[in-house]
Amino acid sequence: MSENDQSPDEGLDAESGEGVPAPADTDAGGEVLPDDARQGEAVESEAAPDFAPATYEEVDQDADPPSAVQEDVNLDVILDIPVTLSLEIGRTRISIRNLLQLNQGSVVELDRLAGDSMDVLVNGTLIAHGEVVVVNDKFGVRLTDVISPAERVRRLK
Fold first, then answer.
1. 104 pLDDT more than 90
2. Mean pLDDT score, 49-78
3. Paired sense of beta strands 85-88 and 118-122, if any
4. How far apart (Å, rounded) are the C-alpha atoms in residues 96 and 99?
5. Contact status, residue 17 vs residue 6, Cβ threshold 8 Å
6. CB 25: neighbour CB atoms within 10 A?
7. Which of 4, 24, 67, 112 has the greatest CB tally within 10 Å of its CB?
8. Band (52; pLDDT cuts 50, 70, 90)
9. How far is Cα 35 from Cα 12, in angstroms, rounded to an integer?
């Protein structure tokens, strides 16, 4: 360290006037530390960046979240995907012994009453209830109640 690097009062021996390092400039062994290794002193960098204060947008609390916003969605990509639509009249549980005894003319009792609506399933997921109709000598189903998407998700749990 040269005499030019010292401040006027720093590093001078009071009696002799000779330059000695200040206690903060030395390590435990008495060796002089470089400027950037001094303890207890903040070292300023030559190019300190200027920081601008953060800016925040005003949030509308009444606005719908982005996921709830209705946008034009192009469904053409999925419209031609085939799905299986099936109708379930009812269900029952029987043992394999009774299943093997079934033959032509056997009657299986289901868990639904006569006149109850049937379940309409798409790929095994309940989407509606309906009743059987005959159209041009073929069976069909008239939808009487369509399950909402929220209800379908709730039933999955």
1. yes
2. 70
3. antiparallel
4. 5
5. no
6. 20
7. 112
8. confident
9. 18
Average pLDDT value for residue range 8-17: 50
**C-alpha span between 156 and 147 (Å, rounded):** 13
At 124 the pLDDT is 86
Q: What pTM was computed for the model?
A: 0.46
Cβ atoms of 22 and 11 within 8 Å: the answer is yes
Look up tokens 């079934």; give the residue. 102
What single string gives the DSSP state of each residue in 46-92?
Answer: TTPPP-PPP--PPP-TTSPPGGGS------TTTTT----EEEE----
Lowest-pLDDT choice from 11-25, 51-65, 88-102, 118-132: 11-25
Contact at 8 Å (CB) between 20 and 12?
yes
Q: What CATH number matches the domain at 82-156, 2.60.120.320, 1.20.1250.20, 3.30.2350.10, 2.30.330.10? A: 2.30.330.10
Q: Which amino acid is at 58?
A: E
